[in-house]
Design brief:
globular, alpha/beta, 5 strands, single chain, Four Helix Bundle (Hemerythrin (Met), subunit A), 9% strand, 271 residues
């Protein structure tokens, strides 16, 4: 995580709006599989704060046993765990669902490093999305709003519908020459873009215009590399606006851009 050391002087920032639990969540249950005891407790506290029932498991074997014993509405699992890691557990859950003809439950990967736990690797294991550590209540709430049943979220396993101008697997292979090269390019681009998005979110929260402009500049390069996305033009506009003013005056545009970018990156991870 990028450290923001130095003076705390500057314009005061409005506190984030409180996270309000969704009423129908009180009837849902989340399985959390995390080998780090402090993170297990933190996630349990966050889920309780959001009004969600939950069960905690310390490794993949325990998580798989819990999943086969009782129904859950969503699974959050760490990628790197002893005995059985998150990838093996996710694959085993998908196999169990197929064998028992069960509905596909969303699985959210929890990782501290997308270089080791790449979006493509998560997707191939049967995971639907991911959360980056360190995790905030607001970030967890946003992911749950997207993936829990009853929201306007895509169904688990459903790929994000592409915009007509977005690149497809076929067009990328035609451009870069082979599936292997496309996989390598997408993996590297996604790792960098997700990290830039995370830092951009932090910069907006801290109202750091310089850092926000820097990360927008990096994202412009990532978006321009593949082409076919109007997000590049939006990022350029935002970068110019942030450089000439305060981050706070462009909060709505910045949040909309970040939401659209997350959808686009999810799409790229799925092709």
């Amino acid at each position: 995580m990028v450290s923001q050391e130095g003076s705390t002087a500057g314009p005061s920032r409005k506190p984030d709006p409180p996270v309000v639990p969704t009423r129908h969540w009180q009837h849902m249950n989340i399985l959390v599989v995390e080998d780090h005891s402090a993170y297990r407790l933190l996630l349990g506290w966050m889920l309780q704060k959001l009004g969600l029932g939950h069960e905690l498991a310390a490794d993949g074997f325990m998580g798989l046993e819990a999943f086969t014993r009782r129904p859950f509405d969503l699974v959050i699992c760490d990628c790197q765990m002893p005995f059985m890691d998150g990838y093996s557990m996710a694959s085993a859950i998908r196999e169990h669902e197929r064998d028992q003809a069960l509905n596909r439950v969303p699985i959210i990967a929890l990782t501290a490093n997308l270089q080791n736990d790449s979006p493509r690797r998560c997707h191939k294991a049967g995971m639907d999305a991911w959360l980056l550590k360190p995790l905030t209540l607001e970030q967890l709430h946003a992911v749950l709003m997207r993936w829990l049943p009853g929201s306007d979220a895509p169904q688990a396993g459903e790929q994000t519908a592409p915009v007509a101008s977005w690149p497809t697997r076929d067009t990328l292979v035609a451009t870069f020459g082979s599936d292997v090269i496309v996989d390598q390019l997408l993996e590297g681009l996604l790792v960098e873009a997700w990290e830039d998005l995370r830092v951009l979110r932090h910069a907006c929260s801290a109202q750091d215009a310089s850092l926000a402009a820097e990360r927008l500049h990096r994202l412009v390069g990532s978006l321009a590399f593949l082409g076919g996305s109007d997000l590049e033009f939006t990022a350029v506009q935002l970068m110019e606006q942030v450089r000439s003013g305060e981050v706070a005056s462009h909060t709505v545009q910045m949040e909309l851009f970040q939401a659209r970018l997350r959808v686009y990156l999810d799409y790229l991870a799925s092709i």
